Amino acid sequence: MLSVTRFSYGTFVFPTFAKLLSYNTMSDNIRQLQPQQLWNKFADLNAVPRGSKKEERVITFMKAFGENLGLETFEDEVGNVIIKKPATVGMENRTTIVMQSHLDMVHQKNGGTDFDFDTQGIEMIVDGDWVRANGTTLGADNGLGVATIMAILESTEIPHPAIEALFTIDEETGMTGAMGLKGGLLSGGILLNLDTEEDDEIGVGCAGGIDVTARREYDEEDTPESKIGYQIFVKGLQGGHSGMQIHEGLGNANKIMNRLMFDGFENFGLRISEIDGGGLRNAIPRESTAIVAIDAVHEDVFLLEIALLSNTIKKELKTMEPNLEIGVSKIDTPKHIMNLGVQEGVTRALYAALNGVYRMSADMPELVETSNNIARVVIKGGQIKIACLTRSSVESAKMDLANTLRATFELTGCEVEFSGDYPGWTPNMDSPILKVMEKLYEELNGEKPHVAACHAGLECGILGTNYPDMDMISFGPNIKGAHSPDERAQISSAKKYWNFVLEILKHIPVK
Questions:
Q1: pLDDT > 80? residue 411
Q2: DSSP-derived 3-state class of residue 484
Q3: What gap in Å lies between CA 442 and CA 434, rounded to an integer?
Q4: Strand 288-295 and strand 227-235: pairing?
């Protein structure tokens, strides 16, 4: 039986277990990194479970943090936390700034990793010039941004103008925090969003998004006695951010599995019993499992053709997905299978449904304009659910692709729902804070920054609906593999980014 201890941070109490001894050792290694202010706050934050839509503990943690500093701290009606800090002496005439990051993180772990995101702190490891987690997502997206703001709020030595720290909730699964933030709560004229993942990039725009979810019911049939059962699995894919990495040619487990299912009936009488593929809508799916029944007389042909097709797919993806595994194993024959007509319709719809880049931007080189991620496929017990996230920096193109998907799935009898619609952020190349940051970056690093829009959902576009006159910019340190267990943050980049932040605070324009 595990022994239980408790420790508190202000009014917030963390439950811990003897198992956390290894976590504390890992955390101590992180706390020695430079800049220590940043990494210490990141370690504090990563001790708190903070999955999207489960932010109660981190909200309590953040409110206690602000209150313990004696700063004006409050939670708005949707759960965002706002902490206000007056300007340091001599900077009272500068424009008030909003420093903004989101509290939630994506929960993904490797198949063999024993970890409970609801109760455990992230186990962090120093790996050369990188910090990563032990088989899970790290939470650097957007934890390093949150930690940056915390360090500045806590410091008595860093010069800065008046700060309104905005910690939003639920960015990763709906941006409901940003959507629910009312006008009038903030007075800042400049917003610094700390959610970009390339340290040489200054973000001036982002994509909007919409969830496209197809559902239908189907009749199950008793499995004929002439059939035998097999399980098919796809795993070992890298996964990743369904916006920032959608153009990289990464494998999508749902599309791969559907390829294995397609024409299976004609070839060896394959009938689908269950499919469970993918996970979060904003993560490229890494794994999928199917339970099927095939004609016993075609077993040898089935195994041969699956092996041949698997090898073909592996060869196609060998550069980006060297660890892809596709396998089959014999199991008890499932009791029920999918209606054949529905099976043929849904496999063809999934084949036809676009996954990946739909259109590149004609205005900004190398920017993905519009894309789709087939994130989740569940077929079980007479119910089908297919969940997609469609993104675009052009509103009309976003809806064009969403309607393309809608039409595809409706042709096979699905009901299609649009939800979670959020706007993009239109670039302002005449932004005053952009001019300041471009100049500072070049002075600090001897080269010009890359000014760009990104194909991800930043909260700036949503926040701008209620704060249209706020001058917004986004930047951050190098983070790779966000939304996957390969997520890692670069130590040297964090130091470079931290120095940039400090210089920006010194050079905020006067009101």
A1: yes
A2: coil
A3: 12
A4: antiparallel
For the chain, how far is it from start to end, CA to CA, in angstroms? 60
8 Å CB contact between 292 and 264:
yes
Kindly tell me if the per-residue pLDDT of 205 is higher than 80.
yes
The whole-angstrom distance between residue 295's C-alpha and the CA centroid of its chain comes to: 41
Question: In terms of Cα–Cα distance, which of 139, 168, 163, 130 is closest to 149?
Answer: 163
Residue 153: the pLDDT is 98
Cα(479)–Cα(475) distance, integer angstroms: 11
Q: Distance (Å, rounded) from C-alpha 493 to C-alpha 478?
A: 6
Q: What are the residues facing 450 on neighbouring strands?
A: 201
Q: Cα–Cα distance between 379 and 346 in angstroms, integer?
A: 10
Question: How many Cα atoms occupy the beta-carbon half-sphere of 183 within 13 Å?
Answer: 8
- Cα(81)–Cα(61) distance, integer angstroms: 10
Active-site residue set: 104, 171
List alpha helices for 411-459, DSSP H: 432-445
Q: Tell me 200's DSSP state.
A: T
Tokens 């991620």, residue?
373
* Nearest partner of 178 among 420, 440, 413, 403, judged by Cα: 420
Give which of 364, 436, 440, 402 is closest to 206, Cα–Cα: 364
Nearest to 456 by CA among 237, 252, 198: 198
CB 71 within 8 A of CB 145: no
- Residue where the block lists tokens 């210490």: 40
Least reliable range by pLDDT among 28-32, 38-42, 246-250, 318-322: 28-32
Q: What is the pLDDT of residue 26?
A: 65
Return the structure tokens found at 159.
Answer: 């010069």
- Which amino acid, 28? D
User: Would you say the pTM of this structure is higher than 0.70?
Assistant: yes
Q: Is the CB of residue 71 less than 8 Å from the CB of residue 83?
A: yes
User: Counting every residue, how long is the chain?
Assistant: 511
Residue that the structure tokens 């990051």 belong to: 101
pLDDT for 1 = 27
Specify the amino acid at residue 335: K
Query: 10 Å Cβ neighbour count for 345?
Result: 19
Instruction: Report the alpha-carbon distance of residue 460 to residue 471 in Å, rounded.
Output: 10
